[in-house]
Design a protein that fits this description.
There is one protein chain. The chain has about 400 residues and is an alpha/beta fold. Helix content is about 40%, strand content about 15%. It has helices at about 25-35, 85-100, 120-130, 150-165, 180-185, 230-240, 255-265, 280-285, 300-305, 325-335, 345-360, 370-400, and strands spanning about 10-15, 40-45, 60-65, 65-70, 75, 105-110, 135-140, 170, 195, 215-220, 245-250, 275, 290-295, 310-315, 340. The strands form three sheets. It has a seven-stranded parallel sheet with strand order 3-2-1-6-7-8-9, sandwiched between helices. Helix 1 crosses helix 12 (about 370-400), helix 2 runs parallel beside helix 3 and helix 6 crosses helix 11. The radius of gyration is 22 Å and the shape is globular. The two termini are about 30 Å apart.
């Protein structure tokens, strides 16, 4: 698909702000692998890019001064050289320059307006400028949204209004037989913006080689920023088991350094416990493990499904964060994993769950996993329709001038 102005691939400007962990970034990078075959992808990276995270080839990356959120949902700077205000100002400058320089045919925005409300000050001007230049605006959205906010209806109504005002398309990266946008998004009025359920987005991988499972349990928590309670509970639960299995704990690049050092101290001298900061391929790790204990973010859940490993999900949840619980319970209902009961993240409750896990055989979850390719194709088709409509509208305006 060539750009009529240049004869080359059309430009897709992809805005991604990962704020707490790396799940949004991982899914976005998996999308880029397919998008880059059809578009010139320019990636606006708004969060920290930890060492060791594989960056897809075939894209141009603009690293904005990194911002994130603490566990109290306050915006914080991830670069000591910038306070929040300075980072925001520099980010707006870089974003504005990127829109002007690339003149994108497509602007793809991860999560907003269904989340990232605190970044609206840079996202809305970007949308206005790109759309004024003729860009198709699309949202890249995960399968299940948080729907436990105290002001949830107001939040959903605002998101619906913004989607209808600024977006031409919403790509929901889910198998509609498993999860649909309407399951966790309930505005007062129906949203007019077209929605495409693409299937799940997973990184491209070589076919799995035959490999025997080890004797160890693999323990992980995504990026690790909220993983410390899980790691501590697993260590305490293992001590209660009559035959403690070996553990291989992948802490994650964002586990705070103090928590990492405490984990090393607590496991020092314990036979059968291996600690790693991060690994290059979590699916390969899961395929080599006897079983997996993990949180249940989007990418981790799909790693479990792809690996076919016996798994216990320990969802990260708070009074206002219930996305992981919803995903884990749906997968548990399919027999694809076990899900820890609410309030059972203590030594006794987790030890009992681990004993169930060691006797558990998962059922394959027949989910559509072609979401990256389907997303790219949907954008190609909607861009073509968008350009046709603009030509028609421009022609009609000229005829009446």
């Amino acid at each position: 698909m060539a750009d009529a102005r240049t004869g080359s691939k059309p430009v897709l400007l992809f805005y991604c702000q990962h704020s707490l962990g790396i799940g949004h970034l991982t899914r976005s990078f998996a999308l880029v692998e397919s998008l880059a075959r059809r578009f010139r992808v320019v990636f606006l990276n708004g969060g920290r890019l930890p060492a060791g995270v594989p960056v897809p080839a075939g894209m141009e990356r603009i690293d904005l001064p990194p911002l994130g959120m603490d566990d109290g949902h306050t915006v914080v700077s991830r670069d000591a050289g910038f306070d929040v205000a300075a980072a925001q100002a520099e980010r707006r400058r870089l974003i504005d320059a990127a829109v002007a320089a690339t003149r994108p045919a497509v602007l793809l925005v991860e999560l907003f307006p269904f989340g990232r409300k605190k970044f609206a000050g840079e996202i809305l001007p970007m949308l206005r400028r790109a759309r004024a230049g003729g860009a198709l605006a699309a949202c890249s959205l995960r399968d299940i949204l948080v729907d436990a906010r105290p002001d949830q209806r107001r939040h959903d109504d605002r998101a619906r209004w913004l989607a209808d005002r600024y977006f031409d398309l919403v790509l929901v990266h889910a198998d509609p037989a498993f999860a649909r946008l309407g399951d966790s998004f309930r505005p007062t009025k129906p949203m007019r913006t077209p929605v495409v359920h693409t299937g799940y987005v997973v990184p491209e991988r070589a076919p799995a080689a035959g490999r025997e499972r080890g004797a160890h349990l693999l323990v992980s928590a995504g990026g690790g920023i909220v993983g410390e309670p899980l790691f501590r509970a697993v260590l305490a639960a293992r001590a209660r088991l009559p035959a403690p299995p070996p553990l291989r704990i992948v802490a994650g690049p964002f586990l705070p350094e103090a928590a990492w050092q405490a984990l090393r101290f607590d496991s020092a001298g314990e036979a059968g416990i291996t600690l790693l900061r991060q690994v290059p391929d979590m699916v390969a790790e899961m395929r080599a493990a006897r079983a997996s204990i993990s949180q249940c973010g989007y990418n981790t859940a799909l790693d479990v499904v792809v690996a076919g490993v016996p798994a216990l999900a320990v969802p990260y949840e708070t009074a206002t964060e219930n996305e992981q619980r919803g995903r884990a319970e749906r997968l548990a209902a399919l027999g694809a994993m076990l899900c820890l009961d609410r309030g059972a993240l203590d030594a006794g409750g987790l030890a009992a769950a681990i004993e169930r896990l060691l006797a558990f055989t998962p059922r394959p979850a027949a989910l559509r996993l072609d979401g990256a390719e389907a997303s790219a194709q949907a954008l190609v088709e909607h861009l073509a329709a968008h350009r046709r409509h603009r030509r028609i509208d421009t022609g009609a305006a000229c005829a009446t001038a």
